[in-house]
Amino acid sequence: MVTGMKEKTQWKEFIETISVLQLVMSFLFLGVACLTLMVYLMFTSLWPIPTLYFTWQLLDWYTPEREGRRTEFVRKWKVWEHFRDYFPVKLVKTAELSPSKNYILGCHPHGIMSVGAFCCFSTESCGSAQLFPGVQLTLAILAGLFRLPLFRDYIMSAGLRPVSKESIEYLLSRCGEGNAVVIIIGGAEESLASSPGVNTVVMRQRKGFVRLALENGADLVPVYSFGENDLFKQVVFPEGSMGRRLQSIFKHVMGFAPCLFAGERWLLMPYRSPVTTVVGSPISVPRVPCPSEEQVDHYHRLYMEALTHLFHKHKTSCGLKDSHQLQII
């Protein structure tokens, strides 16, 4: 029988598995491992190494929120192509992004590990530079990760930036035109709702990104990663339960939420389920240095309407049934 799909060899599947496993392990443990290593070395004969590094880190403290240290070499690693193929991940453009403008892309949903956002916007494996020529896409993530020694340098090399007001304003106001900051709007709270078949986004009360867009005259662009929530199964605690309260306390203190999840193999490997990240049409936003609450609410409403339209327009082509609905909380 002749088919249009070429079956993967066992070697290819193995390489894909290793590529995904290294990112999962990095996501879960690399930051803590780097910190532990440097602290341990402080109490050995190699103490000058961490001492010099920590001194340099203090001098380099604000680099993540300013110019960063993005390298195309890391973004184009071959490992990211194998990572992409494991699911696979696909990036879909629905409209042009002009390099003469700046943008804030709101990406939904968070999922457990934001695989679609990372693959599409922090690597070149999905061809973002070719799809959006002249526009530099930058994924903004938890600011605390940039305080971890060594790990900060690794994630900066992939072009990641802190999701802080200072970092985003620097990109939108001091780096010229053609900058697009990708923010996973729902954050840690949205990850707690991640579960196969669920399409829930947290954003009704999240308006800070709209205010930043108005203050800097950056157009808003909705993005939805179909299939993101299908990569892991999660124990979802009901609202008001002890488990949910403990998760909320941890999130408030640490900035991220501990999710009890399981994957396809070894509990850590995500399911081989397609992820399609669809970038919608930009919403034109004027520059208003001091926007009123009414203006913020107006563009926030336009954004939610555009996100809902994007979801319903592409859900069937991305593997969902026509009956699936988007829940915004």
UniProtKB/TrEMBL annotation:
EC numbers, comma separated: 2.3.1.-
UniProt main location, coarse: endoplasmic reticulum
Cellular component terms per the entry's GO annotation: endoplasmic reticulum membrane
UniProt keyword terms in alphabetical order: Acyltransferase, Endoplasmic reticulum, Lipid biosynthesis, Lipid metabolism, Membrane, Transferase, Transmembrane, Transmembrane helix
One of the GO BP terms on file: triglyceride biosynthetic process
Transmembrane annotation, as ranges: 20-43
Superkingdom assignment: Eukaryota
EC class: transferase
Subcellular location: Endoplasmic reticulum membrane
Membrane topology: Multi-pass membrane protein
MF annotations from Gene Ontology: diacylglycerol O-acyltransferase activity
Family of the protein in this entry: Belongs to the diacylglycerol acyltransferase family.
The name this protein goes by in its record: Acyltransferase
